[in-house]
Design goal:
By secondary structure, the chain is α/β, with parallel strands linked by helices. It folds into two domains: 154 residues, Alpha-Beta Complex (Aspartate Aminotransferase, domain 1), CATH 3.90.1150.10; 250 residues, Aspartate Aminotransferase, domain 2, CATH 3.40.640.10. Strands 4, 5, 6, 7, 8, 11, 12 and 13 form an eight-stranded mixed sheet that branches. A four-stranded mixed sheet has the order 1-2-3-16. A four-stranded antiparallel sheet has the order 14-15-18-17. Helix 4 runs antiparallel to helix 10 and helix 11 runs parallel beside helix 13. The protein is globular, with a radius of gyration of 21 Å. Bound molecules: pyridoxal-5'-phosphate (PLP). The site of pyridoxal-5'-phosphate (PLP) has 15 residues, from helix 6.
Length: 415
């Protein structure tokens, strides 16, 4: 039977094809469809729901906000909620990390944060060239897609020029350093290089962290050649890998950090850039956007920061659960693909690289049949990608990993 979805929704629809059921409600790490079937969500809205579906803490706050007559939309005027949010950013993100940065509200999506970062880099350096990385993904606006190497095979993306992608660096070599230096010193289509855009741990590219030594070298060389470092923490940030930012402790020391997805805590559209204060060269109003003042999201974000980031307990728990996930994936490799499969992971951003598109796709489908939601990623979609919520119990985590094991056994048993 032709549904309203088939009839009216563009052919571009995607996730609904992977999980073809109608979802009706959700709580914590669970999502329920209209037949009453519960699914364990190891996708978490592509990293939007690190704090779970309908986290009661934020839901109660949002309901109170909505009933009270407080502002919802405010462009970038001053509001009580923005003040609370900025205070929370200062207290829980900037001050503890001794970051001298300002907050730019950029509109509701990650792509807008990347747009703003690229435009500011040009504003500061006067140089149009952008260096990115193989497997990098930064969003679907024209500029963000143009610096996303992983988008390159998509025929719909018209690339704006002045971009080169360097190889991903898992283990730093002298060759990587030489290539980086030559690229930063050189020109791209006649333009000097003004920005490096990097996901310190890649999400869509395959749940893979850059060698921290390379990230430190990026900082050093970028400073030398007057290039701004943009760390895209949209997917790997907000606690996904353990620390709030996936680059913490690496020496990357970015000039601009793009943050979105889970930043509202509740799953509301919100994005910000953190910008090194000395580089905040914007003229008033030079970068705009109607939806920069989502006060509901400011309120829930402030609650997320003050609840989960007042000490390191949440980070430690994510790192502990990340180790459980890594161990489970390592066992899967040993059992089903020794010498063939590979674990790629940082904290709770974890992947099983099967190096085989049909196998990865089949595992995702077999998992769905066992009421587990898992996505695939990486070039050619060869990697089974796990992004569990960060608020689940160990029992729920083990339950999901058990379902994944069964799904892999289903697929590999049939090979
Ligand atoms: C690392 C990264 N940057 C940017 C984006 C784009 O964010 P949005 O889809 O909100 O525009 C994404 C989305 O998946 C992402 O993973």
């Amino acid at each position: 039977m032709l549904t309203i979805f088939d009839q009216l929704e563009s052919n571009v629809r995607y996730y609904c094809r992977r999980w073809p059921t109608v979802f009706t409600s959700a709580r914590g790490p669970l999502i329920t469809d209209e037949h009453g079937t519960d699914y364990l969500d190891f996708f978490a809205g592509a990293g939007v729901l690190n704090y779970g579906h309908n986290n009661p803490l934020f839901v109660d706050l949002a309901i109170e906000h909505l009933r009270s007559g407080k502002l919802l939309h405010s462009l970038d005027t001053f509001t009580e909620q923005k003040r609370d949010f900025l205070n929370a950013v200062h207290a829980h993100l900037l001050a503890p990390r001794q970051l001298d940065m300002v907050v730019q509200t950029v509109g509701p999506t990650g792509a807008m944060a990347v747009e703003a970062a690229l435009q500011l880099a040009y504003r500061v350096t006067g140089k149009h060239g952008v260096v990115g990385f193989a497997g990098g993904y930064h969003g679907m606006s024209l500029a963000a897609a143009s610096v996303s190497e992983s988008m390159a095979p998509r025929p719909s993306v018209s690339h704006v020029g002045n971009f080169v992608a360097l190889p991903f660096v898992e283990h730093l070599t002298d060759h990587d350093l030489t290539l980086l230096e030559e690229t930063l010193r050189g020109t791209i289509n006649g333009e000097g290089v003004g920005a490096i855009v990097i996901e310190p741990t890649q999400g869509e590219g395959g749940c893979r962290p850059f060698d921290p030594a390379y990230l430190a070298a990026v900082r050093t060389l970028a400073t030398h050649y007057d290039v701004l470092v943009i760390a895209d923490e949209i997917q790997a940030g907000v606690g996904r890998t353990g620390p709030f930012f996936s680059h913490e402790g690496t020496g990357l020391d970015p000039d601009i950090i793009t943050v979105s997805k889970s930043i509202s805590g509740l799953g509301l559209p919100m994005a910000i850039n953190l910008v090194r204060t000395s580089l905040d060269a914007w003229r008033p109003g030079e970068f705009s956007g109607t939806f920069r003042g989502n006060n509901l999201a400011f309120a829930t974000s402030a609650a997320m920061l003050t609840t989960y980031w007042q000490d390191d307990a949440f980070q430690k728990n994510t790192e502990r659960q990340g180790a459980i996930v890594r161990d489970a994936l390592t066992s899967l490799v040993e059992e089903f693909g020794p010498g063939r499969f590979k674990v790629q992971a940082n904290g709770m951003l974890a992947g099983l690289n099967t190096f085989d598109t049909p196998i990865a796709e089949a595992i995702s489908q077999a998992a769905f049949a066992r009421q587990l939601i898992v996505e695939v990623c990486g070039r050619g979609d060869t990697i089974v990608k796990l992004l569990p919520t960060l608020i689940m119990t160990d029992d729920q985590l083990h339950d999901g990993l058990g379902r994944l094991h069964a799904a892999v056994a289903d697929v590999m048993g049939a090979q």
